[in-house]
Amino acid sequence: MATIYDVARRVGVSGKTVSRVVNGDAYVAPATREAVEKAIAELGYVPSNAARAMRTNRSQVVGVITGAISHTPEPAEQSGLPDLYILQGIQKAFTHSDMTLMIADTGGLSERVPDLISTFQRHRVDGMIYVADYHQKVTLPDMARRRPLVLANCYDDQDTAAVLPDDRRGQRTLVERIVAEGHRRIAYLTLSPLLEATALRERGYRDALDAAGIDYDPDLVAAAYLDTAGDDRQLLWDAVDRLLQLDLPPTAICCGNDRMALRVYDILRSRDIAIPDDISVAGYDNYRIIAETLSPPLSTMELPYTAIGIRAAELLISHLGGEPLRAGPPALVGGSLHWRTSIATRKPAVAKLNIIRRRKS
Length: 361
Prior knowledge:
The chain folds into three domains: 1-39, Orthogonal Bundle (434 Repressor (Amino-terminal Domain)); 61-165 and 305-334, Rossmann fold (3-Layer(aba) Sandwich); 167-304 and 339-360, Response regulator (Rossmann fold), CATH 3.40.50. 42% of the residues lie in helices and 17% in strands. It is built from 13 helices and twelve strands. The protein has a six-stranded parallel sheet, with helices on both faces. Strands 7-6-8-9-10-12 form a six-stranded mixed sheet, sandwiched between helices. Residues 74-79 have low confidence and may be disordered.
C-alpha cells in the first residue's frame, strides 16, 4: 500500500507538501499540486483517516444510534416506520457535507445502547445522534455526552439538544380546520395516556375548542389506543359505540393515528353510518398507504419525521462548524395538514339530526 512518502519521492517534494495537497490547508503551486495529484492517482495512495484524526482531533464521522434497521413491522400492523424516515432525513442533511455517517442499530434492545455509544467513542466520532421510534423521554448514560449529542424524536432531563414533533400545535391545527367546516361536536379517540404525545395532542384539541368558544365535553374523549393485540380492537369498538349512544353524538371523530381511523371506518360502516355524510373522520400521521387508499381518502395531520431528522442533523452540523449546541427546551417541528374528503362541511343542527336519525333507525 502506497504511503505519503512514496508519493513525495515520486514527485520529488516533501511529505509535508503532499499533506498540504491532500488536506487543502495551505498554498501549493498549481504545477506542484497537479504533479502530486497525478502521483496519488498512479500509486493508489489513500490518506489515513486515523492519522488525520490524530492531527486535527476530528474524524469527520458522526455516529447514529437507531432501531430503524431492526424495527420492521409486520404487514398486518399497518404502521409506519418513523425512525427510518428520521434516519433518511439525517442522511439528506449530511449528503452535501464532508462527514460520514456511521449507523448502529439497537436490535430493539435498549440495553445495547451503552455499548454502541462506547464503540462510537472508540472510533472518535465527532458527534452522535440518538433516534427514537416515537416521542418519548429517554435516559442515556452520562458517557454519551463525552461527544456532542443530539436527540431526535425524544428528550431527556439533562437539557441535551433535542428535536421533537410539535404534537400540540398539530392537533390544534387539525381540530381548528374541522371546526371551520361547521362541526361543533368533535370527538377525540386518543392513543395510550402513557404516551407523551397523547397529553400534548389533547391539549391541542382543547386549545382549538377554546379558541372557537366550544365547551369541552369529557364524554367526547376516550382512550382507544391500538396495538396488535385483539383487546384494543374491542376497546375501540366500545369507545365508538359509547359516542354513538350519546344524546348529542359527534359529527366528527379525530383518531389518535391513521391506523385507528382505518378501523373506525370499518366500525361505522358496520353500523350503516356513512363517512363523511353522517360522521366525519380524521386521523394523525399521514401514513399514506392508509390515508390515500381509504374511501373517502382520510384527512390527517402529518408527523414530520423526515424534517425531524434533517433538523437534528443540522443542529449537529452547525455545532461541528463552530456554533454552540442548542440546550434547554427541545426544538419543535410542525407537520402539514393533509385535507382530503373524509370531513364534510355542514351546519351543526343538520348534522345532529342526521346522526340521531341514523342511530335510531
